[in-house]
Amino acid sequence: MPDERYNIYRSTIHWRYAMARPLLAFFDARLIFFIALFAFHIRWWTFLTLVIALTVFGVAGQLNYSLASLVRLVKSRLTGRRRSAVPYTRLRPMVEYGLR
């Protein structure tokens, strides 16, 4: 039997909406940082930062990428195709043989 809890709009609450992208109007809600930055420090560089952020988030939203998956995509493009299975710090560990 389904859960009969309702939200303020009297519609059922489903767990699948927990991972939905938060929206503010039709923009990503995480843009509020850039909007607040521009509102409290009105300069050309903050305006350009806001426009660039709007563009990046808008394109990512059109391609159905979340912020986390977009960061992973950029990171994987920067690192390249070949990656070792072992971290660089474990390839040649520092060992003290006790020789003095």
Overall description:
The chain is mostly helical and 100 residues long. It has a domain at 22-77. The protein is built from 3 helices and 2 strands. The chain has helices at 32-40, 44-62, 67-79; strands at 23-24, 27-28. α1 (32-40) packs antiparallel against α2 (44-62). It is extended, with a radius of gyration of 23 Å. The model has no long low-confidence stretch (mean pLDDT 80).
Keywords:
3 helices, single chain, mainly alpha
Class of secondary structure makeup: mainly alpha
Strand-residue proportion? under 5%
Overall shape: it is extended
Output the number of helix runs.
Answer: 3
Overall radius of gyration: 23 Å
Distance between the termini: 74 Å
- How many strand units? 2
- Uncertain spans: none
Order of helices and strands: EEHHH
Mean pLDDT, all residues: 80
Précis, in short:
The chain crosses the membrane at residues 21-42, 48-74. By secondary structure, the chain is mainly alpha-helical.
Itemize the secondary structure elements and their pairings.
Layout: E1 23-24, E2 27-28, H1 32-40, H2 44-62, H3 67-79
Antiparallel strand pairs: 1-2
